[in-house]
## 1
Amino acid sequence: MKRIITYRTWTRAGETHVATKRKRGDKWEFVVRRKALLERPYYLTFDSEKEGDAYVGKLEALLDHGIVPEELSIKKPNAKLVKDLIKNYLATISIKDNDHKLLVLISALMGEKRLTELNYDWAEKWVQDMKRIRGLKPGTIRHYVGAMARCMDWGKRKNLVLDSPLRDLPRGYASYTNADALYSGKIVDGVRDRRFEVCEEEKIRAVLKGEKREDRQRPHKLPYRGALECVFDLAIETAMRLREMYTLHLNQVSLDTHTIFLDKTKNGSKRQVPLSSVAIAVLERYFSQVINGENGMDQFKHEGGRLFPWWDGDFDPKILNQTTSRLSKQYSRIFGTAHCDDLRFHDLRHEATSRFFERTEMSDLEIAKITGHSDSRILARYANLRASNLARKLW
């Protein structure tokens, strides 16, 4: 026996409108009726009741204002499928070549899918398929999702679709999980190996310099912009941890000897970090900005002898944890603005260590003294970066 539930009932100008929903097998069917706007009842099917409630709620809000989405209009059948949406978007909006190529591929892969099927469950399933079936890299997945999300944003503004569920995907959606690895054959051993992908470093630097993202009206607000830039640069030049940097005092930094002395580290051992010519230039520029009050540094004058402005000098673990969390979230927002959603600040330490192996002739022990890795087994995973060097040693 079918169970019919009244979804919503109201009266307007003497006419009663009723939307109903019913459970059919493991699906939920919704029926929307508006005699004044719709030529016939409109039927929608969803995997869950909650999903259907959300979609129909948005649909009825539009109908309340006399707006009929094109996907519901019988008189306009040319925008009911994904391929129609993409075709209209490409014909109307001037977009980048990369987005154009990706959308053409998306249209070929799922162009026959109805626009009403583009809900959050679809978004999750699409990302999952790109990982488990196609084995795409996280960066490539983000490019696909970004291109389609911009297309759906336009469609939403044009009332061609009700929502853009790709914008609701959680941070890190493109990263592989252990379950994804089982399907795709990729190895996930619990150790993150996230590095910069093509152009990501440049995009982050652009955000740090105040450039706005193309889909936003204003740039990301960054208090103490100069300090944020300096810490970012030091991280990829020295492999220092975030806490090791923001707790630095001026007397720990020696530009004359090109070193930073760390007396409080994660594993409790003290170490000296050598500074490259790039790192020296970064620090000199930062000191100049503080002195001259430039790049957002006008409210900080190295109070208490501290190098950076976010910490008050208290080594209480609670204070340190709060500061680390606050700064990590700040950089996460910066990376998100640069379309590097699954990048974490600690990944910069992996990037820096990888560069030491790729760009220098230092031994593993010498690199460990710089980075502070106490377990040689951790550095062993970087060995493949020097495969060419090992090959030259063979007869």
Note: The longest strand covers residues 3-12.
## 2
Amino acid sequence: MPAPLDIDQLQTFVAIVDTGSFTRAADKVFKTQSAVSMQMRRLEERVGKTLFIRDGRLNRLSEDGERMLGYARRIIRLNNETIAAFDDQQLEGSIRIGTPDDYADRYMPAIIARFAKTNPNVELYIECEPSGELAARLARGELDVALVTHNPRARSSEVVRTEPLYWVTSTNHTVHENPVVPLAVGRRSCLWRNLACSALDSAGRDYQVLFTSWSATVVASAVLSGLAVSPLPECAVRPGMRILSPADGFPALQPAQIGLMKRPGAPSALVNAICGHIAASLDNITPVGAEERLSASGSSSRRDMRVRPELAVTPAW
């Protein structure tokens, strides 16, 4: 019977990936850098694969290292869930979480389901509002945690996920070819709206904002109906939408980032537990391989999101 993998080695491996270096990982796992290097050599020997490739002064994950990362996170998470299941001092209480309606629709069901399994005595209150409103409510003490669109110019949040931001139009319409591009976007404070308008201004492309709403459903409906073009993150692309490229006259956009905000003074144990769970869950969602993605020229299939093998929300104004 093969010898089991060492949880401690796997935790160090994940820490290296998350922090970006052996040195920072050593601080995170409270080990010396030489001990961290030794653990990785032993882990590589155990699986018989090279997990890191030397690139100048940096170490980057090899293809096998990328494969190992998913399994490592799964093993660590299952280990933690097992310990929690037999913990007589489980977390108790209630926590108020705010999220835009699109993130609630796409991400929260799985996040809540998994958290509830290991924390049955914690009551979760979920409220949906735009990111700006959530930040204000957090400041007023009306929420404990908020999942928001990261916007460093407007608020401070910890980035827990980054994905491409695309121009999308209807597969069955040609509204994107109009001399004046009609847009469906969020309110004036929406980061994605501002990025989109600035990009079109820089490209010298004429446009007109025809639909304004913080509701992801309204924006998606305008796009699918062939009434407007909109900037949407990768996870929000739906069946019937087409991704536009610079070849279509639409400049590339900066990536979309999702951030976490915590209320100062909120119950630390509960807040840290749910925030760690949310961050880990979002980190385990990966897009499909390049060969399966929608081509920029327009496939009617949805650009799906897949979860890494170990497991198994649209614009946030």
Note: The chain has ten helices and 14 strands.
## 3
Amino acid sequence: MALDTEGDSLHHYPERLALVQLAVPGGEVWLVDPLAVADLAPLGQVFASPGVTLVLHAGDNDLAHLKRRHGLRFASVFDTSVAARFLGAPATGLDALLATYLDVTLPPSRQKDDWSARPLSEAQLRYAEADVLHLGALRGRLSEELGRVGRLAWVEEECAALAVQPVAERPADPNAFAGLRGARELAPRGLVVLRELHALRERLALGADRPPFKIVGDETLVRLAQALPADRAALAGIPGCTPKVIGRWGEALLEAVARGLALPEDALPVFARQPRARIPGAATRRIDTLRRWRAGAVERAGLEPGLLLPNRLITAIALAAPRDVEALAEVDGVRRWRAETFGREIVAALAAV
């Protein structure tokens, strides 16, 4: 069964799951409205069935939404984007893969549409249908190619991990403002003002049911914390503070700046940088060795560096310092296909450090 979803993150806040598309071989397509049908448990029974493989394209977010918001489980998935990457495809977008392998042209993109608006237009219905209609046939063609080059088992292992990958809840981060670009260059007073502005934007976004970036952009928040405007005239001189922004939220922005400025000096919080984990010198040398090995291996295998051996695995392997393939295979995330195909080379490269 083919699966895709549409959200409304460009138009509403917080984002909602706005559409679920399903298709089976033979051309039957269903569109499920999760805004009208809140309980998707019956679909969960299908998705968790051992006899059903769900075919998706770049399905990380689709699966995450359904796992986190609806508690669904998945027995088996096949991601056509993952498959294309293991074939070294120069372009892995669904439109490119359908054109290459099936000579199919998708309708014009509707990704920027508000998918929570009802009724859906005819163009939206055709787009939603096309996103799942050909996935089964595409899976077949990609599987043939993967079998020919001996990488079908690699993709199946990656997809099996994707199916069961847990999705943790995202707790609100009270220090999220400090991660904005340019925030760390602010003086302590500016950081306090930025904290007030960031909290204000969150409240405004929730109240207006609009994404935060449509209230005030990140860069504008940081500029406000730098400039510390005291009136509307000063606001007007800050890029991003358009007449529309000032008209709607100007007073609230000025009040947030004033709250940050009013905090007594001895009450200013200290925003400490998170210290980076220290990596021993021997492990650092192993990291450099693994990166050099990867540079040559990607040329031979025709795979992206981040697919063959992502940086997080390079660090994990360097810290574990495995001395044989069996120990390498036990490093979390290495997967069987990497250990079996490249394990001896990796262990030999580490032994030479």
Note: The chain has a mean pLDDT of 95.
